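Recap for those who missed Tuesday's class. We walked through two folding examples back to back. For each one, the amino acid string is listed first and its predicted structure tokens come directly after. Nothing is annotated here on purpose, so try labeling regions yourself before you check the end of the notes.
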Amino acid sequence: MFKALASLLHQRRRLVLLASLVLLVVAGAIGSSLQQHLTNGASDYDDPGGGNVTARKVIQQATGIDPQQGYVLLVRTDAPLTADAPVPPEVAAAVGLLKARPEVKRVLDYSGAHLPALIAEDGRSTVVLADLGTLSSPSDVDAVKALEHDVAADPLLKDRTLLGGATVGHVQVGEVSEKDLGMAETLSLPILLVLLVIVFRGLVAGLIPLLGGVFAMMLAMLGTRVLTLFTNVSTSAMNLIFALGLGLCIDFSLLMVSRFREEYAAGVEAGAEGTARAVRRTVLTAGRTVAFSAFTVAVALSALLIFPLPYLRSLGSSGILTVLSAAFFALVVLPAVLAVLGPKIDALSFRRGRAEGAARVVRRWERLAHGVMRRPLLYAVTGVVVLLGIAAPVTGIKFTGVDQSVLPRSVSAGQVAEELGTKYAQQPASVRIVLDAPADASAALDEYGARVGRVPGVQRVAAPVQLDAGHWQIDASVAGEPLQAAALDTVQQVQRTAAPFQARFTGASADFLAQRASIGDHLLPAGLVLAGLTVLLLFLFTGSVWLAFQGLLMNALSVAAAFGMLVWVFQQGHLSGLLDFTATGALEETSPVVLFALAFGLSTDYNVFLLGRIKEARGTGLDERSAVAVGISRTGGIVTSAALLFFVAIGALGLSRLAFIKELGLGAAFAVLIDAAVVRTLLVPAVMAMLGKAAWWAPGPLKRLHERFGVDEGGAGDEEEPAPAGARAAAPKLVTTA
């Protein structure tokens, strides 16, 4: 298959490039509208089969109010407010404006609802609350924009009113995410270009991965746009497409271009014949590795599809599309580019004709590998101790959810959240209990409400309200902030209180508990699928049982170290000033799940790069240690450079003002860096040196399975026919490795 692909790409290189250009134009035309079709509602974090979702649907059908939607207008007044004073004109204007909105179902203010807690403690402001009907994307964006316009047009409100609440917060999270992504692209792309020119030692070669990243991102956006026709896709997908598309294109391009240079320099044919052979050998060797690497990363991200939360599923789907897009560029477009360029790949190179510099790099990596293998136990133990030390903080990991408090203070919903937390009496968390009860159940429900009221932490329980013929609602107020431990513990006790009928719970605390339970229920199946498929794929690639499980263990160490860093930085608050965030004492619940799949896949990616070259060297007859040294020497520079560039690409997400995006970007960047610096450089050669031939062991039945279905790394058996007589005796010297 790869032989046929390589020959086709060389023979039809101009047609392939023309078709790719047409595809890029189509992708740009259709994919450019993706941002307008992404969602960021609270329902993205719900398990559709959860009891809390059912409870909200019952409330919505009975009252027309969506419990997850809402506006908060924070109105500042000139004169101090008191609960019994006349309503100031600006507050009356806010109430009237909200009541006039078509999506608003109910408005609450301190006077009409007799709620003095809606007045700030200093009396200088008050909040007006609005319950809404269902608003789905993009109708929520349109509604918020219309509300902002109406407030700005009202002379009583425009200079003294801030907009907040769940609906405004969701819309502004999307806006902040889009703006921050644009900033990350603006800052990171020039830095990457400079680094790529240095790594590739030339402008032409350095531009290829960057252009490939743009191609992969546009293609992934096209695929994701099609996906939005069938399901909700979170706005965070754009961040993943940017970082993963750019990072993988850099990884794959490094491997392919380095191998092309090496094959061209090692050939005996001149001109077009030498280019054709180098392209074929590149696709047969590095191309196979790229294809397998892409497959392993996609498999890792597919574990996110096991979780029922739309947020995780959408990131898994868009991530897989991004991986496939990067692989398409590396396996189809890039070989055609190399076939057209040939030796001109080194045009505008400041290291042209200085292959001795690359040879020195290879020798340094080879000496490092031999140095590690002379004391394998020392390096193995040291590497494991270092990684476990970095991972140690993970033992105290805690989780929280996403609400308006994650927004920066530069947007109105973030300011409202801050003022509510600092200038107002602490608002009790609300728990809404929906019971499947008949019309004559009021007495039993009164007794149940009394039991709920006796739960420590419950401040008030409202009288039961009949929603329809088969459902009742009881509202309870719980002390503490909804996502803090005290309120969550109280709500859990309420949920454990014996109810006379089927009871379902919703509200911020109950919704987070349902999300946490859903993730916990699916964590083991997802982990088993990820581990099982990774072991299977690595076995098919290497033919070794040990190397398959070694890859699993090494990946686990890299991911554990990344989690430890996240806890130390984001949960404990270290470096919060430098990274510009406020520590909440916990990590956002879904970020570690996404990070686990992403970092696991990227670690396997680098593992495949290294093992593929070791396996190829071993296939030429080298002993185990020599093969490891060759593999390290030929991929050490590539993997290190790729990790550094990937660190910049995905680490750019750390510039986001949203903490959970920072967590994902910096966590993945750190995992990649620690994997390249410690795992591939020290642990892998040390462990393989200690095992020797045993590292490649497999029982007889599995050996036969690998012979039939396994991957051949493109050894001598794939070589084309010998060069014809009269071909040149020596090839021009080109740079052979990154």
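Example two. Treat it independently of the first, because the proteins are unrelated.
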Amino acid sequence: MLPSSKKSVSAGHHSPSVPRTPRAVRSAAGEEVQVTSSHAHSVGAKVVISRAVIDHFTAGSSPLQVLAATAPGVSFGSSDALGMDTAASTFYVRGFNQSQLGGTIDGIPMGGFGFHNWYGLNIDQIEIQDNIQSMSVSQGAGAVDMPSGQTLGGALTFQSSDPKDKAGGKISQSFGSYNGFRTFARVDSGILNETGTKFYASYARTAQNLWKGYGDQRENQANFKLVQPYLNGRGKLTAIFDYSGFTQYNFLTMTKNMWQNYGQVAMLKPDYAKAVRWAANAQAGTVPTEVQGVLSADEASNIFWDGSQVQRNYLSALVNEYKILSNLKSDTVLYGHVSNGDYGGTNNFLTSPTSGIPMVQQMGHPDVRRIGFTQSFTLKLHNNDIQSGVWYQNNSFNYPTRLYEDGVNGAHATLSGFKKGTGTTWWADSFNSNTFQFYLKDVWHIIPGMTLEGGFRSLTQTTHGGTKVDNTAALASTWGTYYAHPVSGSMTSSNAFLPHFAFDYHFLDKHEFYWDIAENMRTYDYATQTNGGTPWGGLGNASNSAQQVFDENKSKLKPERTWNYVVGYRYNSALFSGAVDFYHTDYYNRLAGITSGPVNNTYSAYLNVGRETMNGADVLGTIRPFHGLEITNSFSWNDAQYKSSAIPYNGGTVSIKGKHQVFYPKFMYKANVNYTYHRASFNFNTTYSSAMAMTYMNDVKVPS
């Protein structure tokens, strides 16, 4: 989002969308068919989704979309049919969003998988969905061996398919409305020599027009994986390379009033004259004639010419599995991740100095360099599996923001023309973080079917950075630049003992009982100086510097922590599967960007806003009346309440005690029907979500 001179008092949100789903036609050649369960299954507090389940969905659907449709307590929303637009998607697991969950693919840490990729990468930008062999979501307390600094609640694990032993290939082609199409192709080499060398290379291209407004969205993805066994199968070395390039026009973020009283608002492109006129209104603080009495000045000022993103991602890894002894195994992952791109759009509060047009193309050009490794050892004794390991990561993040003039007769190009030296730098931020984690756990096999797991992890992260360049004052008279919150300094998150305990008991053949308890800590986020919600971002005001607020916070802030408790029961037979579990979370040191200070000098701050407690339950039942037919229903209840009674706000205090958490429904109901006959299948999914609060006071809600 672009910075605005006016702020609305609400939690950030995305507008409701009505995308159309493409119709898929698939064919395959040389494919090895694996016999596997056609439904999601569970182990303890973890739901596992097989390739067979993923194949029930439209080819190319986001794995997060598949998880949300099949796992209770999981919520996913997106602006496009396949769920690929990370700028307009949300993902929650039992109240925790995508920035509060851990994730790995093939053991590679995914980091934070939100929109901008400050310190991670979304699964949709790593792996082509067709290449995912399985995935799981831990709805409970996470896991001590998860290499993540973001985990407060659950954890996601993805496993890509290995190259096939038999040479062959696969082609998939989909077509849909709004000129939607998707092409996927994969070639498997088969086993090439006596040592077992094999690889695959695959490519996917997806494109569709926006379902409202001007523009389209295009994604190109490529995956390569090579597997080399050695020492007669004692070891296996895997080389991985993933690429994705996303070129997208963005949807406009809307308030509830906008979509209720003005309709599905889109950006103003291609009506340039209207965009210039509305920008002039924005700078004057007035409402355009055609929306007077419908939109506020704040709402109208944030409807602009255009917004877009170009993103390029490269992920490489070497994964080595080696059996040192018959009961001792070593797993090593070395990885490197590079992301860069162009993010932004029209800013209605700046002026192009040469043309005098009251708007400017403002673009951020992020550059991410993430490198690291994990090393773990697993020792199997008579009744114990002892595992220990370390994780280290260095992340370098740079974000210069440049201004590009809009002309008298037309705007600057939306998706090109951003080469270094062609724009004017407003400000630039730079961060460097080092993360280290150690863990130790023991899984004790008490009797057949009964295990008790105990372990802990130690986690520390130090981040240095902030404003590197700030030209606000120098550009104020020509471009109309305004306060940009420059700040720099270091923050450290650290906890030496984060315990995890889990119990799982399979009894009487078809029954399972389990519980799970863990403490988690989330390291401090970092983002640009104009993005609120981090210790470095959106602080202070023109008379109370961001640096002063940051320095005061250093001695007061503590990392966010949670204690998570889960207990559940599961029954599984050929005809029926049922599960019920209950969970409780105590959330400490919740951090949030708020407006603080005396009434005559309020400023943006980042503070501890107290505790939150969460109680919930999930109930799931699956019936299989005859071979090939599977009907699943699930119901989820979540009561997440804030406990703060005196949060500083706008020169005073407000109480949000007893208010429900924003953007997570209190109730969800899901129904899934799947019928498979030989190689033909039919699939139906539907989800009901209750109303969700848009504000911390719960006075504005997204309807059910």
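Answers for example two:
The mean pLDDT is 90.
The longest helix spans residues 272-284.
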